[in-house]
Design brief:
It is a single chain. The mean pLDDT is 90. By secondary structure, this protein is an alpha+beta fold. The longest helix has 13 residues. It is built from two helices and three strands. Strands 2-1-3 form a three-stranded mixed sheet, with helices on one face.
Amino acid sequence: MPFAPGLWHAGAAGKVEPGEELVAAALRESGEELGVRPEPEDLSLRHVVHHTSPAGEWEHAFFVSHRWSGVPYNREPHKHAEVRWWAFGALPGDLVPYCAAALARMRSGESVSRLDGTAG
């Protein structure tokens, strides 16, 4: 089932499985959703947002990687309509709210933030 239909999300996303480390989850999700595999040393943790919404409380970790093996494509068309790339300074306006907030704070150099009461 699609998450936030009509809105863009920031890269690969998912949940950390029980017993799984955060970096391992980021690597797994990159492969599952985009068909790419960065090396652990190529991942850079840039932002963590504590997000409270009507759906619950979440910790979202945003990694950046500039190198990977494979060609990115939409491996989960049943969940995502499309995969597209934008320059960090030219992101679309119709982003999932917590992603938009986290990316704006990343851009200003913040590494941790809190977002309360916003859906998505």
